[in-house]
Amino acid sequence: MTSLIIRHVDDTTRQRLRMQAARHGVSMEEEARRILKEALRPTEAPSRLGTRLLERFSGLTTEEFVIPQRRTQACSRRAWFFVQKR
User: Fold this and answer.
1) Which residue of 49, 55, 65, 68 has the fewest CB atoms within a 10 Å radius of its CB?
2) What are the CA-CA distances from residue 20 to residues 13, 26, 28, 86 (Å)?
3) Are 24 and 17 in contact (CB under 8 A)?
4) Predicted structure pTM score
């Protein structure tokens, strides 16, 4: 293992590190190692949109998915862009 010296740590940060280490029952060095290890651990690749949607809604059933009734009747005329020219 190698050693790491961090210079110019302000007193407030040093004090907070000391307090946190005491709460966890470890030395300041061990607490600093834990913090660095956690902060620099590899992150998981973000999941793709389809995967996230599937995970989010996979438990839904059709009974839970309510489609509100329309307030008006559907338009009986075709939209102008569906009219075929002859």
Assistant:
1) 68
2) 10, 9, 8, 80
3) no
4) 0.50
